[in-house]
Amino acid sequence: MTNLLRQDQAKAREDAVAAPPLAPTTVERAPAKIDKSQLNIAEPKRLRDKAHLKFVASQPCLICGRQPSDPHHLRFAQPRAIGLKVSDEFTVPLCRGHHRQLHQAGDEIAWWQTVKVNALTVARSLWEKTHAVAGQSALQQRPS
Predict the structure, then answer these.
(1) Residue of 126, 101, 125, 123 whose CA lies nearest to 114
(2) Does any domain span residue 101?
(3) What is the pLDDT of residue 73?
(4) Is residue 89 one of the residues assigned to a domain?
(5) Pairing outcome for strands 70-73 and 91-94
(6) How confident is the model at residue 14 (pLDDT cuts 50, 70, 90)?
(7) What pLDDT is attached to residue 80?
(8) How far is CA 76 from the centre of its chain?
(9) What count of other Cβ atoms lies within 10 Å of the Cβ of residue 119?
(10) d(CA 51, CA 34)
């Protein structure tokens, strides 16, 4: 009988050795951050410039000419990103009333068409005014 018990114990040890481990044997490291500038399709950069935002806020409202105005970020100018506004280069001046009206409208592109203003052109000219270097704008200097 002890002989049978020893055989069962030996078989149990063999089975235990052949079973895969329940936990990983090596410590896995978190992957390194991906340098997104090296991707084939680069992610758009979200430029931040407080001085430019102050300059835009000093301009009169595009619709009615009132001051003071708020710098409005054109949401349709860049792809959406969770928790991020579009780049500060895509800002235009709007008075409080028109800024609120635009946000309540929902469809920003349709709102700009209704008021007959090309906001992207205005935003580009404002950006070029604050980022001109020796007669050449920052938008023209950036590689495509």
Answers:
(1) 101
(2) yes
(3) 92
(4) yes
(5) antiparallel
(6) low
(7) 77
(8) 13
(9) 23
(10) 31
Taking the CB of residue 75, how many other CB atoms lie within 10 A of it?
14
- The answer to whether 63 and 98 have CB atoms below 8 angstroms apart is yes
Note whether 62 and 74 are within 8 A (CB).
Answer: no
Kindly state the tokens that stand for 141.
């200097």
The Cα–Cα gap between 115 and 133 comes to 33
Structural domain contains residue 84:
yes
SS3 state at 106: coil
Is the confidence at residue 111, as pLDDT, over 70? yes
Q: Classify residue 120 by its DSSP letter.
A: H
pLDDT exceeds cutoff 80 at 129: yes
Domain count, the chain: 1
Cβ proximity of 72 and 122 under 8 Å: no
In a domain, 43, yes or no: no
Range of the domain at 112: 50-141
